[in-house]
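Pipeline run #58 for the internal structure catalog. This entry was flagged by the ingest filter as a single-chain record with no existing model, so it goes straight to prediction. Upstream metadata was stripped on purpose; only the residue string is passed forward. Reviewer on rotation: M.T. Logging verbosity set to normal.
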Amino acid sequence: MELHNLPVIANLSDNITIVEKEKIKIVRVVHPKATAGIALFGGHVLSYQPAGQPDLLWMSETSLFDSEHPIRGGIPVCWPWFGGISSPNHGFARIQEWQLLEHRESEEGVVVSLGLKSGESTLHIWPYQFELRLHIAVGSDLKVSLEIINTDEKVWNFSGALHSYLNIGDIQKISTTGMGKEYIDKLQNNQICQGEPTLTLTEGIDRIYTAPDAQVQMADPALNRTITVENTGHNSAVLWNPWASLAQQINDMPDDGYKTMFCIESTIFSPCLSAGITLQPGEQHTLTTAISSQNC
């Protein structure tokens, strides 16, 4: 995503500025190790570009930036549920305005921390008190950590995901390993299936891999690189690409957008609101994803 031509509305440091795209404020990071963009709307990482490389994250050219609808691409924060088990789809965190808590800088990179707390706009959707802290570490690789804290007097359950859209050269040329064999196939009525150790694609995919390795790797020969996604705090890895027929039905995605994106998502999967991870009052849980690349 092009960030350099956006109007600057605040300078926070030599490496960090606040810019604006339409109705959304974006924390723009420019560091010798990498550049990045993080929207305050949704706590949404939009771009991460290591020095001398193409962006590792894919953004839809037709995504809305109206501060009402979810942003298409980057790393949406899906919480307090994943998928369509309640409304809105993928929860409300990705359509809330987050607060910039702090930023730290060093020779190794920049860390930006955002926060979201329960309030009137969340309690009518989900009747629990919470606090979220999102830490985005931008350096030679990208690490995103979502801290989830129960600030209520009641126990509650949650699911969610860091829904990373990876930028690729050609969907039909990539190969992916490390996702494990067993998966729930959302395109086959949630049938439990067994896959091969290496995945290549010739059609759409929407799978929940239930026992992924610590690292999932995707070889992308068209861009001459391998992207590694390392997740913690999750119970599954979701792999998704809509392919041509579904992409044409997604209003905020170009018809050919599926060709250059692939989602590998750090996911806490639950089939219903009453399951997932349980937090007692005062307890917390951290979900992370770390994304890096190296030349093939």
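catalog note: DSSP finds two helices and 24 strands in the chain.
catalog note: The chain has one domain: 8-295.
status: ready for reviewer M.T.
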